[in-house]
Amino acid sequence: METAIRATPRASEAEEWVLVLAAAGVSYRLEPAGTGWVLLVPDSEVQRAQAALEAYQDEEARGEPTAALPERASRRVAWGVGLAAGGLLLAFFAVTGPPAPGSGWFERGAASAGRILGGEPWRAVTALTLHVDAIHVAGNAVATALLLPAIVRRLGPGAGVWVMLLAGTLGNLLGAVAHDPRHVAVGASTATFGALGVLAALRLWPASAAARTRGKPWMVVVASLVLLAMLGAGRGADVLAHGLGLLSGGAVGLAAGAALRRPPGPSIQWTLVALAALAVAGCWGLALAGLLT
Predict the structure, then answer these.
(1) Separation between Cα atoms, residue 118 and residue 293, nearest integer Å
(2) Where residue 172 sits, what CATH number does that domain have?
(3) Domain count for the chain
(4) 69 in a domain, yes or no?
(5) The pLDDT value given to residue 228
(6) Which of 25, 124, 145, 280 has the largest count of CB atoms under 10 Å?
(7) With 60 as the cut, is the pLDDT of residue 69 above it?
(8) Which residues, other chains included, contact 284 with Cβ-Cβ below 8 Å and sequence gap of 6+?
């Protein structure tokens, strides 16, 4: 059985609670409720969870007030982008289907380590859009729909989409270097773990210098590792790919936090969204045309 211990209308506050509990090793579940969020924990963990959250709040109260993170997109826009990205993964799976003998999609688009290093780097992008079965794509679609909005609210729709895409791509490129040349991978999991890394890194760039001095980098790092263990170490999971995605997301998030203290305006943001879609389509164009083979 579970007990609801906190409720909030703000996604940023819910995210903060989740990081605190993850860092403390407390099991939790975050559920949407009306216009906000409800935090639930197992009955046996209620006391530990409340103690961890109260200790965190006491520590916050003793220091200077933390400046709110700047938001570059409304909640409606952020969730719209996240749901659209998740929906596109599902729609593309409806076109490609699962791996099958003679499937050109998987033959030309999967992240084959040997082929990526042999001159086909576009596979690091195309592999993010391929999935082995309905459960695989559904999990990544849901994760994308939940994680991307938080990035979009901080960086804007265009910058948010690009950092998640870059994190996934970089993770696949690093995976090609780390794995045996015969290794083949597909799925957006590298990008979703990249999104976790991005969110963790962005918490190291508060809105003001005073807030930055009050940051807790250790908590962010521990929470990210706990999330990796909880979500990415199941049977059949490519733990190395997930870990590389998390690290890539952290690197991309740090760069984005430093470079985008004042993210671009709406017109540039939506142009960036269109360019991201064109980049993925362009990689698939190269893949299916066999221009690099």
Answers:
(1) 9
(2) 1.20.1540.10
(3) 2
(4) no
(5) 55
(6) 124
(7) no
(8) 109, 126, 129
Clarify whether residues 145 and 12 are in a common domain: no
Residue holding tokens 């998640």? 164
| Residue span of the structural domain in which 186 resides | 75-289
DSSP 76-139: HHHHHHHHHHHHHHHHHHHHH-S--TT-HHHHHHSEEHHHHHTT-TTHHHHGGG--SSHHHHHH
Say if residue 37 is in the same domain as residue 121: no
Residue bearing tokens 């003679």: 102
Axis crossing angle, helix 239-259 with helix 157-178, rounded to the nearest 10: 140
Kindly report the pTM of this predicted structure.
Answer: 0.70
149 and 30 in a single domain? The answer is no
Q: What is the CATH number of the domain that holds 17?
A: 3.30.70.1530
133: amino acid identity, one letter: D
Residue 192's contacts (CB-CB under 8 Å, 6 or more residues apart) are 140, 143, 144, 147, 168, 245
**Distance, CA of 277 to CA of 108 (rounded, Å):** 19
In a domain, 158, yes or no: yes
Domain annotation covers residue 221: yes
Measured CA to CA, the distance from residue 149 to residue 15 in angstroms comes to 12
How many residues are listed for the chain in this entry? 293
Question: Are residues 245 and 188 in contact, defined by beta-carbon separation less than 8 angstroms?
Answer: no
| Average pLDDT of the chain to the nearest whole number | 83
| Interhelix angle 157-178/75-96, nearest 10 degrees | 40
Evaluate whether residue 68 is within a structural domain: no
